[in-house]
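Practice problem. Given the sequence and the SMILES for zinc ion, write out the predicted structure.
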Amino acid sequence: MKKTTKTALAVCGGAAAAGLGVNIAKAVRLKPAKQEKKELPPEKVDLERYKRNLSDAIRIPTVSDRDRDKVDWAQFEKFHALLEERYPLFHKAFSKEVISDASLLYYMPGSDPSLDPIAMIAHQDVVPVTPGTEQDWKYEPFGGVEAEGCIWGRGSIDMKNHLIAVMESVETLLEEGWRPARDVYVLLGHNEENMMHRESGAAYISRELERRGVHLEALMDEGGAVLEAHVKGLLDVNVIGVGIAEKGQADIEITLAGKGGHSSQPPVHNALGRMADVIKDLEDHQFKSEFTPLLGELFMRPAAKGTLPVRMVAANLKALKPALTLALSKIPLAAGIVRTTTAVTMAKGSPAPNVLPQKASINVNFRMMPGTSTKDVIDHIRKVVRNKDIELRVVKTKEPSKVSPIDTPAFRKIEEIYGADPKNVVIPYLVFGGTDSYLYEPVCENIYRYSPFRLSVALLANTHGTNERIPVDCMEDAVVFFKRYIRGMTI
Ligand SMILES: [Zn+2]
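Answer key:
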């Protein structure tokens, strides 16, 4: 354990001990009434078909690229043909439009036009295999091999698993005679991995929906997952993490001019040396940490299902907030939950070993909390960096998303489905990475980022990595969830 982590935990523990004596009664009251596991009606799932179709989907390398001339469009055509061939009822019930090169807009009208539609979204594209790492894969990265209880390959977690599960669930619902009251959209982008913002397929689809006057009741995209949280004697729950917001990202280049010259006659501080002070100012003056209401939910919901010591922390949350916020801000893994993070990622000086820099530059990558804009980041840099000669350039930016409300039919539906098992706890949380879903904000307020797969933290961390794979034993539950959610939202 790192020193900062230890300190943070000590702070947290000390504050907890100080505050706990008073509120044991409250902690006892927090204990949930003993709830029996309810059995929901079973759902038919064709797992063999799902596995086969996922493997075949992985075998089509739908790799996107920022430069559209570098994209092998034939692979996307193949992928579209695969969906059409494997899901005949779906393609009979839904109209299909290709938008912006290879994104797909599927639409099925419901029986009650007074209701707002729902949308299920996913991206078809995958990231490439990093050159030089091909031989590190245990199984062919685009082989879709089933082995050791998993299906292996690029896209098996991000996110052909999710896309094919949506197709499976709708196909099965149609086989069972499902007739939705609401309109249903299935929207499949083709270049999410390149974060092309206004130019991404999802943005084109969103603008098209806006043009048609469509307003969505709810939209579901990738993001959260099912995580098992077992801490012996303290907590034994399944955390259903539903992303209700995502952080923004900004790359800012900071430049300082220098005099240059030969390295044999250096000044006391050249441009790079002065840049070192800039970096130190940025690292020493982090954004303010805050305990958001979202974070409160993150703590309260699972804690209420824990044993007495865990419930004591929850019952005393108000008193513990300052200490918890401080503790979290000191743990690198957790700091991103409480504040906008600052990471200096690249540095440049002169082009040769014996040349003094004529200019020095760094790239700083910020991950913004909802409510913090790129302009706020610029203001922050100007405020905390003492050297006023710096020049700033916004290299790339994506503003943070809005925060979706949780008092909505869609969120309640997710809670209702998982509420059948008292071990489950649905938690709204903040997604650190980017998804296509924020592009739909003009047509939808209720955006939920959730992939219903039970995955270990290690497997989740493997997204975009070598040996990406999905355990077969979590696949059936995903289709079951989607069937219940889509049917539940459309009757
Ligand atoms: Zn993804």
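Check your answer against the key. The pocket of zinc ion is lined by residues 123, 158-159, 192, 222 (CB under 6 Å).
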